[in-house]
Structures are given as C-alpha cells and as structure tokens.
Amino acid sequence: MPADPPDLIILGGGLAGGLAALALRRERPGVRLTIVEPGERIGGNHLWSFFDSDVAPVDQDLIEPLISHRWAGYEVRFPAHRRRIGQAYRTIESERLDTEVRAAVDPSDIIRASAVAATPDRVTLDDGRVFEARAVLDTRGLFGPLPGLACGWQKFCGQLLDIDGGHGLTEPIVMDAAVDQTGGYRFVYCLPFSATQLFVEDTYYSEKPDLDRAALTLNIAEYAKTHGWRVAAISREETGVLPVVTGGDFGAFWPAADPVARAGVRAALFHPLTSYSLPDAVRFASWLARDTPLDISLAAATRKLAKEHWRRGRFDRLLSRMLFHAADPPDRYRILERFYRLPAPLIARFYAGRSTLADRLRILAGKPPVAVGRAIGALMEGL
Questions:
Q1: Within 13 Å, how many C-alpha atoms sit on residue 47's CB side?
Q2: Is the pLDDT of residue 144 over 90?
C-alpha cells in the first residue's frame, strides 16, 4: 500500500474511466489518480462514434484530441426511405484514447490488474494487493446478471476492410437497414476511413444476448460482395453485446446501500434505445472535474446523478419497448424508418439524450408504423 494514497482510484480504463481521468487532469491537475485496468490498452479495442452536437461547446476541448476521423454528414437507408443528413459526425479510436491517457497520467499510476473487491475508499486486486484512496470510482461496465433492468440486446461485429480499387463512399452510412430483416431489426454501419479503408459493422437488435460472430462476419462479407467491393485484407475487428433497456427498477439495479461510486455503463449512463454512451461519458467527466468532492461522499453524488438520468430516460425506454414489443421482428425496421423522416434537429437532440417535450410528442404523433393495439400495449407497460 503506498504511503501517500491517491485522491481517486478509477476502476476500469474504458471510455468512461479514460475521459474521467483526462477531465480531472485538465481541470484539476493536482488531483492524484490511479487507474486499475486489466487490459493491455486503455480503451481496449473499440471505436466510438458521435454527432458533433452530442458534445456541449464547453466540453469540446476534452474530446477534440481524441478524434481520429471527421465527416460533414451521414446517410441512412431503409427499404422505402433514403436520406442524407448534414450533421457533423466523428469517430474516436481506442488507440488515441490510450495515447492521451498515458500522456496525462504517470505510468506508475496505471495498474494492470483486476479488482476483486471495492469499498468507497479501498480496492483489493486479484494479486492480493490492497490500495486505499480518498474515493473509488467504478467504471468497469456491466457484466453478469443485470438486476433491475429489463433488456433487449444490440449485438454487433465490425471489421475494417482494405478494399482494392476503393469503396466509393465519402461519408458514413450510419444505418443501412435496406438489408434482410428476418431475424429482427438489423442494419449495417459503414465508416470510410480513407478511399480504400472502410469499417463495416453488422448489428442486430434481439431478445437474447448470444452473439453469433460467424454469422455476422459472413453478413459483412456478403454486404461487401453485394456492393462490388473486393476485400484485400481485414485489419481490425471488434464485437460487442450492449443492453437496450425497455424498463426496470433503478433501485434494484443500484441499491442505495451500495456504497461505491459508479460511472459509465455501470451506472446506466447510456441511451436506453441506442446503447450510446459517449455523450453521457463526456458529461459525467465534465461534472466530475468541476470541483466534485473526491471522498466517500462521491458514491451518493454519482448515484443521485445516475438516478436523475434514469428518470429522464423514461421516454426512451418506452421507445425501446415499442421496438421489441409492438412489432414482429421482420417489421421492427419500420419504427426507425419513420423516425428518420423527422426533422434533423429533432434527430440530433434524440441521440444526444436531450429530446424536448415537443420532440417526444412529434415522435409519437400520427398513426404508428406498427399494429395500433400492440403499440398501445407497449406504451401501457411503463405505467
């Protein structure tokens, strides 16, 4: 145990933990930090993409050094609707997050290990070492059972393809749902990193969390073939299974008696329908760096913040129920196809988690693109 304990131990060096460390270093450079991360690299092997409007102007300086790719707009495709939206889109590569965090934090303060126990001011590692701090922040994500959460799942596999002769895309396709929908809501996501490099991700929404990597990689190969792309090599791959929250009990998910502070996905700080966590990770990091006390009171403060986020997410959980419960799997795409006919500013606010009352009324207005009775049933589930 060090003679001079740090002010904060961050458990988990993913997006939420990495951004929290960077924000504290920028705003409160005197704060002593320790990051506990079992992986070889901060951020692991991930890409995080976001709309420029997801990040408040005051937080742009925090996120700017992490951006690897930029575009002026994006496209969506559905069986009966295709649209370009002129909204700036950005991508962060985990390698950049790793570089920035290691430049900001002393190497000796990044411990490659797993935590097996934590209290508000103490962490026990899998090798038996014990560390104390003024506060502990758990950002390790979700693993195992999710008490209190009713969920569907978003499952994906993405590959960075090197394409002979180029792919012809100049802007992302954020959602190509003009693909087979037999197994449930499915779309393909394309990010052009260069004229010849294209990141292609195949994504499903389904009721079960099992991921069939072989099927998804085959889908990517078929998608490339359909577009006439000759794949010379695959230089990156990532997979993931993310919760899509349809309902639940926040008190069961995070009991008031749990004394350890949380952040990121572990605090349910993500969009209930899209599983999108970057906007909330940035907001949390900014909040933490604004003179938030780093002591055992941090647990109560983070739980209060997360509980308010849960309250604001009620409408988005309703939309998640609509997606899973109001339509048969092959017809679920119709809900998103209708959504993407709405005004671009409304879409931007939705992704950022800032939908207004008028936005919500507009989303629900008119005849639903699914059976009316089932739509009403999905609405009533949350009452």
A1: 25
A2: no
Quick one: tokens of 274?
A: 């899209």
Grouping H, G, I as helix, E, B as strand and the rest as coil, residue 160 is: strand
Question: What is the reported pTM?
Answer: 0.93
Structure tokens at 150: 């009713």
Contact 195, 99 (CB under 8 A): no
- The domain limits of the chain are 8-147+249-312, 149-244, 314-381
Mean pLDDT, range 206-230, rounded to an integer: 95
Q: Domain 149-244 has what CATH class?
A: alpha beta
Contact 85, 76 (CB under 8 A): yes
For residues 325 and 337, the model is more confident at 337
Do residues 253 and 147 touch, judged by C-beta distance below 8 A?
yes
On the question of pLDDT at 377 being above 60, the answer is no
How many other CB atoms are there within 10 angstroms of residue 19's CB atom? 31
pLDDT at residue 372 tops 60: no
For 8-147+249-312, CATH gives 3.50.50.60
At residue 125, what are phi and psi to the nearest 5 degrees?
A: -95, 165
Confirm if 216 and 287 have CB atoms less than 8 A apart: no
